[in-house]
Amino acid sequence: MKKGVVTIADVARHAGVSVSTVSYVLSGKRTISASTRARVHASIRALGFHPHAGARSLASNRSSVIALVLPLRQGMHLPVLMQFATAVVTSARSHHHDVLLVTADEGPAGLRRVAAGAMVDGLIVMDVEMDDPRVPTLRQLARPSVLIGLPADSAGLTCVDLDFHRAGAICVDHLADLGHREVALLGAPRVVYERDTGFAHRTRDGFLEAAARRGLVAFTEPCEEDAATVRATVDALLLKHPGLTGFVVHNEAAVAHVQAALPRDTSIVAICPDELAERFSPALSSVQIPAEELGRQAVDLLMTKLNGGEPASLTMLPPHLTVRASSGPH
Fold first, then answer.
1. Which of 189, 197, 74 has the alpha carbon at shortest distance from 133?
2. What is the pTM of this model?
3. Which helix (H) or strand (E) holds 287?
4. Residue-range domains of the chain with CATH
5. pLDDT digits (tens, 9 = 90+) for 141-158
6. Which bin fits 107, alpha (ψ -120 to 50), beta or left (φ > 0)?
7. Taking a C-beta distance cutoff of 8 angstroms, is the pair 170, 321 a contact?
8. Maximum C-alpha span of the chain
9. What pLDDT digit, counting tens, does each position of 235-245 carry?
C-alpha cells in the first residue's frame, strides 16, 4: 500500500468490495450484511482510514456523536463513574464517534432535548432505577439507546449490566463456605435505595436469597460514606448481633472506613474495582465491577443498532470473585 492519505478506494480494494459498499457501510443508508460490514471495518482499522467527519455527517445525516447520560446524583462514587465514562469514550473513538457527556439530572425532558435534531446519533443511559421515569421516553425516541443497568421492566429496551443479584449471592456463598453463620451487607447510601436504583436492590436481593438458601442469619444496612457514620453503623450492628463474623460491602467510598471499624478477625468481601480491593492491607476479597467491559459492550450494542442490526435485548455479565487476604475461616 502506498504511503500517504488513505482513501475510500484504498479501503474498498483492501476489503475486496466496491467503493459504494464502503460508502454504504459508513453512511448506513443501505443494509449491508454483517460479514461485509465487519470486513470493511477491519480494513478501515488496518489502514487507519479516517473519513472526513463533516462529509460523513452530511452524507448520512449522522453527527458521529453519542450521548452518555450520567446524572451526577447524591450517593454516587465519582471515581467508579469516571471509569465507565472513560470506557465509553475510548470505545466510541474506536468506532469514529465522539461522546457528549450529559451530567444534569433532567429526567425524560433531558433525553428528549438531547435526542432532538441532529445533536447525537444515539444514547447510552446510566444510573438506572427499578421504575425509571426515563424508560417510557427511551422507548419512544427516534434515536436508539442502550442502558447500562436494568429496570424492572426492560421490554423494548437494550440493556447491559453486571449480574448484581448473582454478585450478592456469590459473596454469601464464599462466606458460608468458610464457615460463617451470621453475615451482614453494608450497602449503598440510603439515598440510593430511596431512588430505587437497580444495582443496589439487586445486590441486596441476591445477598438475602443466598443467605436463606445457605441457612445463614443475615442483616442488611445502608452505608453512608463518612467515617463517623460508618463506625456508628458497624458498632451498632456488632452490639446488637455479636455473632456477626462476615461482612459484604457494596459501597466503594466506604470500604476503607468499614475495614478500619471492624475487628481484625472479621471477614470482609467487597463489590468494587480490583484496583481498589488490592490497595488495602489486608487486600480485600472482592467481586470486580467490570466498568471497562460494560462501557465497551454498551457502545458495541449501540453501534449495532445504528448500523441496522438487532442486538440482544439483555446482556448480563457474570460476576467473578477473587479471594484475597481479607476473608478467612470462621
1. 197
2. 0.81
3. strand 285-287
4. 8-60 (1.10.260.40), 65-162+291-317 (3.40.50.2300), 164-289 (3.40.50.2300)
5. 989 999 999 999 999 999
6. left
7. yes
8. 76
9. 999 999 999 99
